[in-house]
Amino acid sequence: MRNVGIIGVGYTPVFVSKRKDVSIPEMISEAVDAAFDNTGLTPQDIDAITFGNMHTFEGVNMPHLWGAEHIRSLGKPVMRIATGGTTGMSAFQAGYYHVASGLHDVVMIVTYEKHSEGDAQVGLMGIITPEVMAMLASGIDVTGGKGMGAIGGGSAGGISYQAMSYLNHAGAGIEHIDGIAAMERRNAAKNPYAHLKDPNATAETIAKTPLVSYPIRFGHICPTTDGATVCIIASEEKAKELADKVAWVWAVSNCASDATTGNLIEGLITDPAEQMPCIIAARQAYERAGIKDPKTEFDVIEIYNGFAHQTLMFLEKLGVCEVGEAHKLLEAGELERDGRFPTNASGGVVSTNAIGTSALNRVTECALQIMGKADKRQVPDAKIALSSGFGGCWWSDLLMYGEKKPM
Amino acid sequence: MDINVAVAGFNMTPCSSDLVTTRERMTFELSSGLFDDLGITRDDVGTYIIATNDFLDGRTISNVFLDAPVGAYMKDESKVEMDGLNALMYACMRIMTGQYETALVLAFGLTGYQVSPYLHIDYIMDPTYDRQVKLLNELSAAALQARCYLDKFGYSEELLDEIAAKDLSNAALDPYQLRQLSDISKEKVKGSDYLYEPLRELHCYPPTDGGIVVLLASGEKAKELTDKPVWIKGMGQSIDPYYIGDRDLSVSPSTTQAAKRAYDMAGITDPKGQVDVAEISSLFACQEPLLAEALGLLDQGRAADVYASGDTAIDGKLPINPSGGPLGAHPICATGLLRMAEAVRQLRGEAEKNQVAKAETAVVHGQDGVCAQQNVVVVLGT
Amino acid sequence: MEVSYMTPVVPMDFTYNYRVGKYVQRYLDAFKDKKILGVRCPGCGKVFVPPHMFCGACNKKLDDFVELSQEGTLENFTVGHIIIEKGQVSAAESPYILGMIKLDGADSLLLAKVEGVSPGEVETGIRVKAAWKDKVEGDFLDLDHFEPA
Hints:
The complex is a heterotrimer. Chain A has helices at residues 24-39, 63-66, 87-100, 122-137, 145-153, 156-170, 174-188, 203-207, 236-242, 259-266, 276-289, 309-317, 326-331, 355-371, and strands at residues 4-11, 48-52, 78-81, 106-114, 211-213, 216-217, 226-235, 247-255, 300-302, 384-391, 395-402. By secondary structure, chain A is an alpha/beta fold. The radius of gyration of chain A is 20 Å and the shape is globular. Chain A has a single domain (4-119, 226-402), classed as Thiolase/Chalcone synthase (Peroxisomal Thiolase, Chain A, domain 1), CATH 3.40.47. Chain A starts with a strand and ends in a 5-residue tail after the last strand. In chain A, helix 4 (122-137) packs antiparallel against helix 5 and helix 5 crosses helix 10 (259-266). In chain A, a hairpin with a 2-residue loop joins strand 5 and strand 6. In chain B, strand 10 (361-368) and strand 11 form a beta hairpin. Chain B starts with a strand and ends with a strand. Chain C has a five-stranded antiparallel beta sheet, with no helix packed on it. In chain C, strands 2-1-5 form a three-stranded antiparallel beta sheet. In chain C, strands 3-4 form a two-stranded antiparallel sheet. The N and C termini of chain C lie far apart (68 Å). Chains in contact: A-B, A-C, B-C. The interface between B and C is large, with 39 and 40 residues.
């Protein structure tokens, strides 16, 4: 299996609530331009493209077709990946396999979302609306256990079960969720590509935001953002030729749970904070990458957190710290950029969520850290990074990268 | 390039206008059926790639409901939201890295009864222009492509009748096809109603429910699982402009580009001479010769002669769509993989009434988008 | 015992509000003056209509807007006997013509309704000209159809 390195990143100039000035493909083209500008590459250098977004948010089927010219893809292979919240990382993984298989040398991963053009709940409701409506039309009671599981799966409702369970296991409190949300919004203030930036955020200011469903406050929830992210990867030979700094991919892994079991059974009978897919994916990734001790080996961590408590929860599930330890690390300042476990220096998904990009942004932010190109949000001496994705219904992707090539 | 990946087995539904099933049940029956055939369990499958379309499934991330029935629960799964032949390419890539020995690909479309197949293209179209002007839909676009192709060499509309009659007769011999019109003739095709001229109803694919699972395996593993592995010799994919007014609809450059990549990998320098049989995802009668030309299997300007001479028939010099192709059934997302399955049946000598005489090398094609904007080509060999 | 299955109908209707972006907006703005704009590629010199941001072949960004003639040649057409609304096919009231027109000055073809000639008599190669709505507002449907010139 060939080594694959990340050689470039491109973002739309801003990630904001509403890009009124551009159509969808025009917005995506900005990130493609940025990737070319940042790397000095041209469309001729790209062998293949993978493309991902969560399309119910815009109501456009296979948008890579409409945007074919805008992503400079004519005459090239384009593969569309669509896996919900993890799309960004799934699209990256597809790109990774394009190169690692030996079939292509330089691959561009293109992701985006333009939430402002859809109803805010459209994409999420789309998961469960047909099921719920079919149940209603058939006279099935949706107020009972099964119904609640179905309804809960797609929105803040179900996540509150997860957060509550996490707090119980970890011995943490809602104030810790306030604290991690605040930390990430402060981090976002140093990231020109973040959406919700608040250099003055504190646990107290977050605690003043309205309660949605205990223990989830409005301030804990990710925004909906318009933006696009592009990442360029290459084989070892091409990376050496084309880039001065490379973030080498050490391992990718993925583990899928299932919506029905995940929502209806796992969510109610077992524990939505158990996150078995994350544990399995992590184990697999560490084995592939030769990571012996996740507690000591990572310099930078980017966690997919649509909801703030997930940062703490996944740090534990990924084995970066013990269960019950994450909130203590938070209190001790160890999750900050200058702490022992710099987490979400970018601000995380809770600060920026153009959902098709959200999982890829975890990858690109880690890559920028390793390449030393993370500007004001740079973590000093970043040599090994870990990024996680989460979405659909309890499924995880993982990637790891290092400054050195894998063995 | 030595890909060293083979099709170890597949399981497909006989297509229907209404399978009276749920997505989950169909998925479970397909995958458990294949596991039984091969004597394996889900533990033997390394990774899964699903190809369905959320708009047609009527729900976001449709695949999360399919993980359990396909056997991917707690395993590595991803989703390619395109024609299933692309998912096959991705699954093949995963095996080529050596990380996995086996990969299961699932694709289906319940576009017969449950949802209109024309919505697929409707939602693909540019919402800021094409969907506002409201002139373009899948059928009007296909008709414009048909006339452009016919006019180019001065073919008459009867060529479409001839092609459709050939395909539909073949389909009537294939138990997996939806359209079973055993008494079809050119006259009967011509007697079907115009939709958008020159396309008549029987020149176009039927709304279809259908699905398929395919198990790919690395070389050694494939030989363990079956004594008739069919090898993937080459793969390629490419894309044309979106804007229909910018395209010459009588040709398919992206098919030619995809084919070149696949042929180069497979060591094919003379497609007409080296390819024994072709299964092409031609959704409309005019697309069959157009795509065959793009694949290098037919010389431009010769379609009328070639079809009239019987060269493309099951017993012809270069059989095209011996199964009947998508005019027989088109479950959106599964169609390219159905073509592949039909080619596998040919290469294994298991195509029964549709069997062509010599079947050692097959070319398989899948498409996506308006008038086949995007195309994928796979070369298979024994 | 015969089993019959329920078939609950689920109408999925989401409303989206799209931004047309710079190119379509400019095209529509020109409609207010009953003008048709194309855009020329600095690489290959081709003129595209309606205008869009990139020339796919050259991968160059387009910003050279040009006014096109109101007249052109009918290069391709189809006669529609059906309409498709939300995926459902139904018979059209009467056959109608959709044409692909090469406006003088453009390289790409513009799709538009063709009226003023019967479906039985229309043929490729005829000259056609733009027919606008009486009141134009910069809307997609301002350019109503083309008719024989």
